[in-house]
Design a protein that fits this description.
Helices cover about 0% and strands about 65% of the residues. The protein has about 140 residues and is an all-beta fold. The protein has one domain: Sandwich (Immunoglobulin-like). A hairpin with a 4-residue loop joins strand 5 and strand 6. It is elongated and about 60 Å long. The N and C termini lie far apart (about 40 Å).
Length: about 140
């Protein structure tokens, strides 16, 4: 299993197998002052599950880390399992959209942060962003 797409958004949801993204692909949170509590961060992802990996459970863990790789919480753990839809040709990969929302995320300081996405103990992606306070902007 791989992650074919991963980006941050103001909002994201999955409906009828489609990924809807509002305000996507940002990399900076601008704060008037610190600490800051960001109202909502969405992580939009599309997992690519190979034909031979279907029907198996794949663990997925998402962590928010600071630039020293210290987990800040929240941590999301789940499982992805897909089947073979009728008419699927052998060898055809399945694409599984997912959207996670993190509400009221507090940042104590400026700097680099990232969401780390892992499956079965292997890092699939790192989605970086920065928190910048206007009072300290250069």
């Amino acid at each position: 299993m791989e992650l074919s797409t991963a980006l941050l958004a103001d909002a994201a949801s999955v409906e009828n197998g489609k990924l809807y993204i509002h305000g996507g692909a940002w990399t900076v949170i601008n704060a008037a002052d610190l600490p800051v509590t960001h109202p909502s961060i969405s992580l939009a992802m599309v997992f690519r599950v190979e034909y031979t990996e279907a029907l198996e459970n794949h663990s997925v863990v998402v962590d928010l880390l600071d630039e020293d790789d210290t987990p800040l919480g929240p941590r999301i753990e789940g499982t992805i399992q897909v089947g073979h839809p009728p008419g699927t040709r052998p060898g055809t990969a399945a694409f599984v959209p997912q959207a996670l929302r993190f509400n009221l995320v507090r940042f104590e300081r400026e700097g680099g942060y990232r969401f780390r996405v892992e499956t079965d103990g292997r890092e699939l992606a790192s989605i970086p962003f920065r928190v910048i306070a206007h009072a300290h902007k250069h």
